[in-house]
Design goal:
This protein starts with a helix and ends in a 7-residue tail after the last strand. Helix content is about 20%, strand content about 30%. It has helices at about 5-10, 50-55, 65-80, 95-100, 105-115, and strands at about 15-20, 25-30, 30-35, 40-45, 85, 115-120, 135-140, 140-145, 145-150, 160, 165-175, 175-185, 190, 200-205, 220-225, 230. Strands 8, 9, 10, 11, 12, 13, 14, 15 and 16 form a nine-stranded mixed β-sheet that branches. The chain has five helices and 16 strands. β15 and β16 form a beta hairpin. It has one domain (about 5-235): Purple Acid Phosphatase, chain A, domain 2. With about 240 residues, the chain is α/β, with parallel strands linked by helices.
């Protein structure tokens, strides 16, 4: 571990407080963010019913992704008790995912939605309102200086909270490579990790992220086992 990484060690915990466009937020190691002043919780890329979609195509994946994702989401909601939940697109893995969801999972999701405002942001996998589920569906949502949308805009855009790219980060310590999902932020905008159980990650140094962040300010909040590890740009490695 480098001296800079050791300096971070005292701050490693399950959450990390930061600021985006002047708004205080808490990044949670489970892949959610919470804005305490406005009572808003955001998650991205749940990809519910991904397993069942692949099963229909003959790909034999374990059919437990929706249950695992909803249980993790339930834990986050129980901890933060938000007034507003924003699901930042690709909440379902395809347009038919909501209709295909087993009743036991639908009931669980409805329990989580009850008593709070729930916003579905349209994604590229699920551009339509989820079938037979409450909540509003929008292409993007503006809250004060923040704009929540699924796909990040090109170039640097202050206040944008987006998903879609499934950011991950890689570091090398003592010759050992470690790669994890991450939140990626430079203090002006944030790109969220995928929350879903069957989702991968794209290295935040990939060209898909080019020009989205100020390099000197980029921090990857890497998601470890119960802890977040804030790593600045100079500690990161390409794949």
């Amino acid at each position: 571990m480098t001296a800079t990484a050791r300096d971070h060690a005292s701050r490693f915990s399950a959450t990390s407080e930061s600021v985006v466009a002047g708004e205080r937020m808490v990044c949670d190691v489970r892949g959610a963010i919470h804005f305490p002043e406005i009572g808003l919780l955001a998650v991205s890329d749940l990809h519910l019913e991904k397993g069942s979609r692949h099963a229909r195509r003959g790909w034999l994946l374990p059919p437990y992704d929706t249950g695992a994702t909803l249980e993790k989401l339930a834990g986050v909601i129980e901890d933060y008790r938000p007034k507003i939940v924003v699901s930042l697109g690709d909440s379902f893995d395809d347009v038919g995912g909501a209709a295909r969801m087993p009743d036991i999972y639908r009931t669980r999701l409805l329990e989580l939605m009850r008593g709070r405002d729930w916003i579905w942001v349209a994604g590229n996998h699920d551009p339509e309102k989820p079938a037979d589920l409450p909540g509003g569906t929008v292409s993007e949502l503006a809250v004060g200086p923040l704009v929540f949308r699924h796909e990040p805009s090109k170039g640097r855009l202050a206040g944008e909270i987006a998903g879609h790219l499934h950011p991950g980060a890689r570091i090398v310590q003592r010759g050992r490579s470690v790669r994890r999902r991450c939140f990626a932020s430079d203090g002006a905008r944030l790109i969220m990790p995928a929350f879903g159980a069957f989702t991968g990650a794209l290295n935040v140094l990939d060209r898909a992220f080019s020009d989205m962040f100020c390099p000197d300010n980029l921090v990857a909040y890497m998601m470890g086992d119960g802890r977040l590890y804030p790593m600045n740009r100079r500690l990161l490695h390409a794949d």
